[in-house]
Amino acid sequence: MSGQLVTAASAFGIDPFVTNLAILVLAGFVGYAVISKVPNTLHTPLMSGTNAIHGIVVLGGIIVLGLGVDLSPLNKAILVVAIIFGTINVVGGFLVTDRMLDMFKSRPEPPKKDEDGEES
Amino acid sequence: MTLAPATAFYQDANFVAILYIVAFSLFIYGLSGLTGPRTAVRGNRIAAVGMAVALLATFLIEGMGNWVLIAVGLAIGTVLGVPSARQVKMTAIPQMVALFNGVGGGAVALIAWAEFNETGGYAEEPLTFVIPSLFAAIIGSISFWGSNIAFGKLQEILPGRPIGAGRLQQPINLVLLLVAVAAAVAIAAGQTSGIYIAAVLIAAGLLGIFVVLPIGGADMPVVISLLNAFTGLSAAATGLALDNTALIVAGMIVGASGTILTRLMAEAMNRSIPSIVAGGFGGGAEVAGPGGEEGGTVRATSAADAAIQMAYARQVVIVPGYGMAVAQAQHTVREMADELEKRGVEVKYAIHPVAGRMPGHMNVLLAEADVPYEQLKEMDEINGDFPRTQVALVIGANDVTNPAANTNPDSPIYGMPILNVNESESVIVLKRSMNPGFAGIENELYFDPKTSMLFGDAKESVADIVSELAAL
């Protein structure tokens, strides 16, 4: 299953797994930096938005089902359910986040500086 | 695998990989839009576009088949997901998020299971495939079952109070974890029987159930954040196994986000994450002793008196809690605030980080009621303001206003940062009855001479205040 992306062996013979580990670690730090800046006000949309993003596992279901040869009926059924689950997660997550964020409104008056000195 | 010369460029594995880079860049860019309410809608949509790109890229992978089944899965998922997301009430958002989180974790566990079957028990696979897959199976299964229990509790299908085996709970959980890990190790060491993967998935699933069952309603924000982090990490592990960068990056971002939120929530309750996961408040049954009625007398007030008190205040701070969500009182609260502002009263809302059942729960409810977000103040911002406040109106919040957290070292919530409502000139508490809230902790705020209580359903009480204000 691994290696459906052609990962040409690097000049130093590094396993693509190790490259992926590097990506994983970096992504963790990037995620930490980006998410740390989200204010408390938006924590619920943040949670439901990131929730939608982890629905990306649907890709895993699609890849395994799509590339599978001679899958047993049981395995096909498992994978279809996995795709259903992942799709609910993605579609539902993004929609509900969108609905929520649409409700966050500012005062109708012209913008002025708030206490933090940020432009509002 | 080598590329046949006839392959179109878009089926080139490198092209697919580049699309994945585009996709995860859009995720990161989109999420950075969530730093402010004005850019957030766009940010979420950008992330959704990223998801579409990732999906498209996946369809391009060379040699894909089973299109009908894939289409069926996508269609059913969409048909189930769209209406629930469209119709869910804002007060039910925590359970919706728990459910969506659960199905994500479930998908991860199912993929790991199908791959185990397909590869004859991971027999010919390298450890760099087997270990992440087993990790994904364990965490995904914990997340699926745990989230479903959280959903059941929030939806009140299951009782919200802690349910558990008391002192036996920890050993049971430990045994389940050991069984799951031992079965996983056996698979990694070459066992190929389906019994082992079943043991992994079932033991991890039971662990998820037993960990969440003993957790009380007020600890839900921590649990939901933690399960969110788990599902993210399991998705990243699936990405490692499948050599898929989009899954790795997206999963890790979610893992980071869930971890940050879990830590923030635990800090806001002055409790360690392990002690919350260990269940119950301070260990469950021990604290449920009598709160004692020795606190003194409670002064009840009427809607009319409350209305007069607030109408002549310079500043009123509203402190919402889960009770406001349960009573769905947010729109009526907004009407009341409008009436007060018409009279020149300054109205602010004090939001405790763990008010409600998930991080930021109150903000969403008040946003739904069109309260401008500038009026929503975080704890650190508002606490200095209470001494200048004539009336603090507490609507369905309890523990987050309990002064015992500052003054009584024997209290189970001692040290938890609270909203210092008792520093304002007077306090009005809207409460259903004198039943102590979660875990039976007596709130001495209610016995403070400057506190008056308005008993009844929060929404009805606020509606009464609105009509009294209109009649003044």
Envelope shape of chain A: flat
Rg of Cα set of chain A: 21 Å
Would you list the SSEs of chain B in sequence order as H and E?
HHHHHHHHHHHEHHEHEHEHEEH
The shape of chain B, in one word, is: elongated
Determine the structural class of chain A based on helices, strands and strand pairing.
Answer: mainly alpha
Biggest interface goes to: A-B, 94 and 124 residues
Intertermini distance of chain B: 81 Å
Q: Which blocks of ≥5 consecutive residues of chain A have pLDDT under 50?
A: 1-8, 110-120
Average pLDDT across residues of chain B?
Answer: 90
Total domain modules of chain B = 3
Q: Which oligomeric state applies?
A: heterodimer
What features would you describe in this structure?
The complex is a heterodimer of chains A (120) and B (472). Chain A has 120 residues and is an all-alpha fold. Chain A folds into two domains: 1-37; 40-103. Chain A contains four helices and no strands. Chain A has helices at residues 16-36, 43-54, 57-67, 73-103. The model of chain A is unreliable at 1-8 and 110-120 (pLDDT under 50). Chain B has 472 residues and is an alpha/beta fold. Chain B has three domains: 1-87; 99-284, no CATH class; 303-471, TPP-binding domain (Rossmann fold, 3-Layer(aba) Sandwich). Chain B is built from 17 helices and six strands. In chain B, β4, α16 and β5 (426-431) form a beta-alpha-beta unit.
